[in-house]
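User: Hi! I have a protein structure encoded as tokens and I'd like to know what sequence might fold into it. I'm fairly new to this, so please keep things simple.
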């Protein structure tokens, strides 16, 4: 009784304690009680990450560099391919370990983005078609984008434990919102008269979705994908705090040892990787008008090979 404070209208919050922190501690016990139920998801995520990482490390660096440059050429043109090639060479020359660490980081990012697309694209399409669903989803996305990553780092670690799987889940939570929002925006931005014309010609809702709305919303969806990839890369240093390997872990260890050299190597490696992924996804998002109204297989290295095989086409 002696510790109770009398209510003061000028400073009311000091005398009110709702016990939110104490009640929130129940999350820890809930996580402990339900840890076994989450293990199948953990095994699936772990298998996906390990499979991608194994393939990236199995390919020799020179071959991987050529593959990524060819992808950049196909997606965004020769100039971007040269730019990407230079960025990858700089990345490899940062240190003998830089390329391997970059492939580990790239595997984490690719796994996170694949799962984000599987979750976010359908949710974005539904939100674009349903005002009610978007109204329910909006505050959730606002929370995901504004809440500090360290806040949901704790419950994820309690459920999953430390390691790459927890890092991927945290990354998905952090990077998912832009893909959902921009997919919804793209669907809603489709000209209603075009949809009505397709409906008048007897197109089914599925045909309208896949042959009218999604193609017309492609550039906006790719912008969301680009943002998701960039946010995933921005999480690699934070995720390294829960033993996620890669360039982020290199930066974290360098910070702990005040090793400026290793911090610069890890930081520049992340920047080079961000440049590569950003340029490729921006190229994928270019409109058909920017590409000269040509099919994707008539440009880039694939178009060059087809032209050599059959010059008449």
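Assistant: Happy to help. Inverse folding works backwards from shape to sequence: for each of the 313 positions I chose a residue that suits the local structure. Here it is:
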């Amino acid at each position: 009784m002696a510790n109770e404070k009398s209510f003061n209208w000028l400073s009311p919050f000091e005398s009110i304690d709702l016990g939110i922190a104490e009640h929130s501690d129940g999350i820890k016990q809930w996580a402990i009680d339900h840890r076994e139920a989450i293990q199948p998801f953990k095994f699936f995520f772990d298998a996906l990450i390990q499979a991608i990482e194994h393939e990236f490390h199995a390919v020799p660096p020179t071959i991987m560099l050529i593959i990524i440059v060819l992808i950049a050429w196909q997606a965004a043109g020769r100039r971007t391919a040269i730019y990407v090639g230079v960025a990858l060479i700089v990345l490899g020359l940062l240190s003998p370990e830089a390329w391997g660490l970059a492939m580990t980081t790239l595997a984490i990012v690719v796994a996170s983005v694949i799962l984000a697309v599987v979750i976010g694209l359908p949710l974005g399409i539904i939100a674009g078609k349903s005002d009610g669903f978007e109204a329910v989803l909006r505050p959730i996305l606002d929370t995901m984008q504004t809440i500090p990553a360290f806040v949901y780092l704790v419950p994820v670690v309690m459920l999953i434990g430390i390691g790459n799987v927890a890092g991927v889940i945290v990354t998905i939570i952090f990077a998912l919102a832009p893909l959902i929002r921009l997919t919804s925006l793209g669907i809603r931005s489709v000209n209603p008269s075009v949809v009505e014309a397709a409906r008048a010609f007897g197109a089914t809702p599925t045909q309208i979705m896949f042959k009218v709305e999604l193609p017309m919303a492609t550039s906006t969806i790719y912008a969301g994908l680009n943002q998701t990839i960039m946010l995933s890369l921005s999480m690699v240093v934070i995720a390294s705090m829960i033993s996620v390997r890669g360039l982020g872990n290199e930066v974290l260890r360098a910070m702990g040892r005040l090793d400026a050299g290793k911090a610069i190597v890890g930081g520049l490696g992340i920047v080079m990787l961000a440049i590569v992924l950003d340029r490729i996804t921006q190229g994928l998002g270019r409109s058909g008008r920017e590409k000269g109204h040509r099919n994707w297989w008539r440009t880039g290295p694939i178009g060059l090979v087809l032209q050599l095989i059959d010059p008449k086409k």
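A useful reference point when you look it over: The chain has a mean pLDDT of 83. Feel free to ask if any position seems puzzling.
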